[in-house]
Design goal:
This protein is 62% helix and 8% strand. The chain is an alpha+beta fold. A four-stranded antiparallel sheet has the order 3-4-5-6. A two-stranded parallel ribbon has the order 1-2. α1 runs antiparallel to α2 and α11 packs antiparallel against α12. The longest helix is centred in the N-terminal third of the chain and has 18 residues. The two termini are 38 Å apart. 36% of the residues are buried.
Length: 280
């Protein structure tokens, strides 16, 4: 299979997942499609085999007796202590931390990819566990006889004081805590994963991969103005001036009479002229 067809296959598989009802989305399958799009060396068969083995072993090792907190502590011990999955403090912004295959191989990642592992294994053992849209640091929450918040990066249970402290570090008002402890959708988790990668690649001046992340985020939310604008900026950096102008025209059509509309129109004209000048 050619590289073009291979990448299209992953994009179609991702698109299939995000068109499903949210509860039916296989979030790990979608996350692996993201990794495969950006990492040509991925071995999906090995990765899926590793995930299956982790889940199957957990069914025997993580006992479901006791409270939700008891089970959550055993889950942390199984993932963090027994299998050694930890947060990568040494190179937090390495893109590999966002690729599920690399997380499994290297036993390290960032909060959101480690969180996906907790969700995958937690659900496999029958735990009601979901991701939280906590600012600056992805968390997961197990629900049952009570609700237990887990930091997958540290492999720890968090109490309310811990959550308040994290909000303070992220410069968010403490009174918003309850709103951040509401589970978010699978689509929102995938968009957050792609957002992390988009920024990482942009900071590395890897405009091509950053653009890919924008495009995949737009598969989830086609009218996201920030991603349309970022796509235009990245396309300009890649000297794709006509495509950049098309993205800005799309943005302008969404909000034709905003304060920045004249600036956008001027930029579109400049991009069109730039493209014409390159043809001569």
């Amino acid at each position: 299979m050619s590289t073009e067809h291979r990448l299209m296959d992953y994009r179609q598989r991702f698109l299939h997942q995000i068109t499903l009802e949210d509860s039916k989305i296989d979030i790990l399958e979608a996350a692996l499609c993201i990794a495969a799009e950006l990492n040509a060396n991925i071995d999906l068969n090995k990765t899926n085999s590793d995930l299956k083995r982790l889940a199957e072993t957990a069914r025997f090792q993580v006992k479901l007796n006791g409270t939700t907190e008891d089970i959550s502590k055993r889950l942390c011990e199984y993932i963090h202590n027994f299998h050694g999955f930890v947060g990568n403090n040494d190179d937090f912004y390495d893109p590999k931390n966002s690729f599920m295959d690399q997380v499994l191989e290297r036993r390290q990642g960032i909060p959101i990819t480690l969180g996906l592992l907790y969700i995958h294994i937690g659900k496999a053992i029958g735990l009601n566990i979901r991701g939280l849209g906590f600012p600056g640091h992805f968390l997961v929450k197990a629900s049952g006889d009570n609700e237990v918040v887990i930091d997958p990066f540290l492999g720890e249970i968090l109490d309310q004081a811990d959550c308040y402290l994290r909000l303070e570090r992220a410069s968010h008002p403490a009174e918003l805590l309850n709103s951040y402890l509401i589970p978010i959708s699978s689509k929102n988790i995938l968009a957050r994963l792609l957002s992390n990668l988009k920024v990482i690649y942009m900071n590395k001046k890897d405009y091509k991969n950053s653009l890919t992340c924008c495009q995949w985020r737009l598969l989830i939310d086609p009218d996201n103005a920030q991603d349309i604008l970022d796509s235009a900026v990245l396309l300009e950096n890649l000297e794709c001036y006509t495509s950049a102008a098309i993205e800005l025209e799309r943005l302008l059509a969404m909000s034709p009479n905003t304060r920045i509309s004249p600036t956008i129109r001027a930029k579109i004209l400049s991009l069109r002229e730039n493209n014409v000048s390159r043809l001569h």
